[in-house]
Amino acid sequence: MAEPVVALESTLITHGFAPPRNLQVAREMEQAVRDAGAQPATIAVLQGQVKIGLTDDELAYLAQAKAARKCSLRDLGIVIGLGLDGSTTVAATMFLAAKHGIQVFATGGIGGVHRGHPFDVSADLTELSRTPVTVVCAGAKALLDLPLTFEHLETLGVPVIGYGSDEIPAFYSRSSGLKASVRADTPQDVVRIVRARRALKLPGGELVCVPVPREAELPADVAEAAIAEAQHRADAEGIAGPDATPFMLDQIARLTHGASVRANVALLLNNARVAAEIARALAGSPLT
Ligand code: PSU
Ligand code: MN
């Protein structure tokens, strides 16, 4: 029986949170996976070497590595070829996880289509359309254009599974007003869909969207006001492309006096746990 493993991304360590919180969150996510009975594998590139599962020393190194490049698919060959440090986005993490036989991956929010920049589409979406990994998240990053992002996923044939929810969550808040492709209430429900897709040899993965825990949720209007102001500042300063997310997350944290960071941490730990439960069910060793 395959041991249940959950892949974890590393861009949130280098670009999602500032030190020392980043290392703390990375360690807590790994622990949440272990507590739920699976093995965590944080993925990154260190000095040109692909790492599937970082040691605690490597996690600490990456958390301080100011020069680490945020690696989407296009960047992997660059950091490996040139012997650099790189953290992996959802797209790059999925690609490397699948190559190493890991089927389940937990993150916070996937990339997508940026507001007012409909041609800035994350490679996360194309990777979801071709790599068979189940990605557990809290929806797409709320700073994106959510309707356009999910339209795009529909075109690409990626099912969006609402976990305990009929709706797709909106990252910081539990509701987006957008309907999920289907609702699943247990890991076994998710596994049935995943197995059917693998049996058909459908390309691509599944998105399992878990709403942020209620006690850590940001009211939708508070989140929206902060996002709009952060987008305004990014546009005013001409910040776009891969720099847009790190800049905006930092602005949103300031504008919400840290509440966005608390929500982000809570949803990450919750997603790590749900992913571990799905990995166990997929490996044939469910908790119940
Ligand atoms: N969501 C967050 N913080 C992040 C990211 C997502 O709350 O740092 C990262 C993920 O690694 C995601 C990436 O894959 O941003 C998307 O970046 P881009 O839009 O440049 O593809
Ligand atoms: Mn982007």
Number of domains: 1
CATH architect. name:
3-Layer(aba) Sandwich
Helix content: 40-55%
Main β sheet profile: 10 strands, mixed
Task: Please state the CA-atom Rg, rounded to the nearest Å.
Answer: 17 Å
The string of secondary-structure elements, in order, is EHHEEHEHEHEEEHEHEEHEHHH
Q: What overall form do the CA principal axes indicate? A: globular
Estimate the strand proportion: 15-25%
Average pLDDT across residues?
95
Q: Name the hetero compounds present.
A: pseudouridine-5'-monophosphate, manganese (II) ion
Q: State the secondary-structure class.
A: alpha/beta
- List low-confidence stretches: none
Straight-line N-to-C gap: 17 Å
User: What is the CATH T-level topology?
Assistant: Indigoidine synthase fold
Total beta strands: 12
CATH class: Alpha Beta
